[in-house]
Amino acid sequence: MKKKICVVTGSRAEYWLLKPLMEELKRDKSIALQTLVTGMHLSSDFGLTYKNIEKDGFYINKKIDIKLDSDTSPGIAKSMGLALEEFAKAYDKLWPDIVVLLGDRFEIFAAASAAHISRIPIAHINGGEVTEGAFDDAFRHSITKMSSLHFTSANEYRKRVIQLGERPSTVFNVGAIASDSIRKTKCLARKELERELNFKFNKQNILITFHPVTLEHNTSEIQFKNLLNAIDKLKDTHFIFTKANADTGGKAINRMIDEYVSKNYFRARAFASLGHVKYFSLIKVVDVVLGNSSSGVIEAPIFKTITVNVGDRQKGRLKTKSIIDCKPVKSSIQKALRIAFSKKFKTAVKNASNPYYKNNVSANIIKIMKKFPSGGNILKKQFFDIRHKF
């Protein structure tokens, strides 16, 4: 009998990372791939990206619409409640042997909670990481405690998952799953990318992704305004914005992006969803990735592209020497950009080591999942005391 493995995805960025894993699961004749799609994939505000999943040849077993109409705290909480109910119904119908979850978003936390209550083992990817500026941090560690198998992106994160009481025999440092996605993506050349985006690059080019800092009250608009003020006087520089996620305060940032682009259309463009080929191609082509997205911390260094990381959203993650941290104020962002564009810094980071990159991440995850039994044996966990050696 085939092992039923259910992959849950709720956002464009998460799907890009999961796609190589899903392709390998689909090819494996001993596995029946199930796919549950939710969150931003089903919202017109974020490009209805479930269509990309179907276009890639994946059958979606269930679309779980959690009504992302509001980005207020009550609105997000309501979406989480709906997600919990609908995921429980989907699991009851599909009854997978294992559920694969990546990351730390609120809809993934709801998917994990429903699986845990349904007594379905969870394989969690990217546990053990720290993002002190976002409530994703608590979601991520909570998902870890509900999960039976753990696939971390770096050895330090593996140690942290064990510190949370998980048995070392169930925690595997496989590297960042982004490694597979990037390795298997044929990036577009600069001229081809210009045609695809209908946008000419300049002498200097910056890719900007800024998300709300969800553990701070009413700071995101101020911080993003400071970022816009910091870039506004840059000469010979063009900007490509990717819009914010469905977090509390995300809509305000997206409105500010639209306003800025409308006033600066000759040198700026904004996209709700680019797809992974164009997004990775942009990271490769631009001079700097600016903002507070995890892609600036994990994916950009794989391309040897410099990142200016603004504020506390990604505080606590492992960072390479190609990443410049700065405060979310105009003067600090401007100083960081001056460093990023300097010849001295560009030369210094060319051979920066990367703690995240590994080969065959997806294949190794599947190999490990296939070894573990389904059901009660894997669900019943003993708390591992870190006083023991591991």
In words, what does this structure look like?
The chain has 390 residues and is of the alpha/beta class. It has two domains: 3-175 and 358-379, Rossmann fold (3-Layer(aba) Sandwich); 190-348, Glycogen Phosphorylase B (Rossmann fold), CATH 3.40.50. 43% of the residues lie in helices and 16% in strands. It has 17 helices and 13 strands. The chain has a seven-stranded parallel sheet, with helices on both faces. α4 runs parallel beside α5 and α9 packs across α14 (330-340). The longest helix has 22 residues, at 73-94.
List the helices and strands and how they pair.
Blueprint: E1 3-9, H1 12-27, E2 31-38, H2 50-55, E3 62-64, H3 73-94, E4 98-102, H4 106-117, E5 122-125, H5 136-146, E6 149-152, H6 155-163, E7 171-173, H7 178-183, H8 190-197, E8 204-209, H9 220-231, E9 237-242, H10 250-263, E10 268-271, H11 276-285, E11 288-291, H12 294-297, H13 299-302, E12 306-310, E13 323-326, H14 330-340, H15 343-348, H16 361-371, H17 376-379
Parallel strand pairs: 1-2, 1-4, 2-3, 4-5, 5-6, 6-7, 8-9, 8-11, 9-10, 11-12, 12-13
Helix pairs in contact: 1-16, 3-4, 4-5, 9-10, 9-14
